Amino acid sequence: MFSPTRVTLARHRRGWTKSDLAEAAGLSSRTISGYESGEMEPSDDTIATLSRVLRFPSSFFFAGDLDEPSPDNASFRALSSMTAMQRHAALAAGALAIDFSEWLDRRFELPEPDLLDLRGADPEAAAETVRRQWAIGEKPIGNLVHLLERSGVRVFSLAEQCREVDAFSLWRHGKPFVFLNTLKSPEHSRFDAAHELGHLVLHRHGHGGCDGSPDQVEALEPRRGRRAEDEANAFASALLMPRRTLLSMTPRIPALYKLVEIKKIWRVSLAALVHRLHRLDVLNEWQYRQLCIEISRKGYREREPDGLTERETSQVLAKALEELRAGGMSRADIARTLHLPMAEMETLLFGLTIASVEGDGSEPSLPRGKLHLVQ
């Protein structure tokens, strides 16, 4: 049966208005509105045209309703600077990822969500609580994405060609999701992952707990959204750079070259480390400003000094793909099953290759018993 919601989702994924789609397909805006509202059903020829211009297979439009998550239930880092179409394109990618994740859940036993509800907690204390829950003390986190997945967070990648879409997270059907932009540096992506974890545990429904309409969310953004963003940033800093251990290794008057060595230990950006030390009163206002000026002058905001060479990727997705391939199911087969173009599949998978994935030694790998095909 033809699904109007999938026309809307495909259009949003391409970042198009109804007028854009109408022009590309040689139709009227009223006709597109009729298809998306369910008042009209396109002919086979029109479906073929929509498939061609939207770059989705024809079968996609007959695969059952697929609703796009609403903006009020997602935590975007810079909602006020994003256009509506950028937000819709990212949420449409999220809908495709959620559909894929639910397909995987029907075939594998994946880790169940195990995140604490820390709404109302101080971000610093919340980060310490999460570290205790994960039993990692105050040591550096080797692979944050793997730790998220061990707690049942579903992590997917985004390939949005804009800096406004850093990352976002949401709860869907009782499961937490994090989406990371792969255009960012590995350090930036790690901080984004920690930031989104902060939203998941501190603001369980996104935007500081606001459950209103999208218009209400945007109206509250300067007041409640900014507060939620500040709390998630504070949580991320505390999670990645625990106070006591960081203070013990930082000299009283830290020079920039020394900070470069320290930031490599915690696998964060130099700017994030300097900001954290300022918040901990290790750096006074003058020292902080001078270091920020030096970081900018040396170009370290665009090119991280001694930066990480590899991006953290999903262990769960890699192992699931490996198991499926061993069973004779290729990525192309998965894409056909989900009625997706291969390009959309790849944007969700961090560009993963089919290979055995073991831990990096920093944290235990996902136990094999946690990921096996459901018979």
Mean pLDDT: 87
Question: What is the ordering of alpha helices and beta strands?
Answer: HHHHEHHHEEEHHHHHHHHH
| Major sheet strand order | 1-3-4-2
Tell me the strand percentage band: 5-15%
Task: Point out poorly predicted stretches.
Answer: 206-223, 354-369
Largest sheet: 4 strands, mixed
Q: What does the overall shape look like?
A: elongated
**Helical content band:** 40-55%
Q: Please tally the β strands and state the result.
A: 4
- Class by alpha and beta content: mainly alpha
Number of structurally distinct domains: 3
> How many helices?
16
Quote the distance from N terminus to C terminus: 29 Å
For the CA atoms, what is the radius of gyration? 22 Å
Structural description of this entry:
It is a single chain. This protein folds into three domains: 4-67, 434 Repressor (Amino-terminal Domain) (Orthogonal Bundle), CATH 1.10.260.40; 72-240, no CATH class; 243-297, no CATH class. 51% of the residues lie in helices and 6% in strands. It has helices spanning 4-13, 18-25, 29-37, 44-54, 84-105, 123-134, 144-150, 186-202, 214-240, 243-249, 256-266, 270-279, 285-297, 315-326, 331-337, 342-348, and strands spanning 74-76, 154-158, 167-172, 175-181. The chain has a four-stranded mixed sheet with strand order 1-3-4-2, with helices on both faces. A hairpin with a 2-residue loop joins strand 3 and strand 4. Helix 1 crosses helix 5 and helix 6 (123-134) packs across helix 9. The longest helix has 27 residues, at 214-240. The two termini are 29 Å apart.
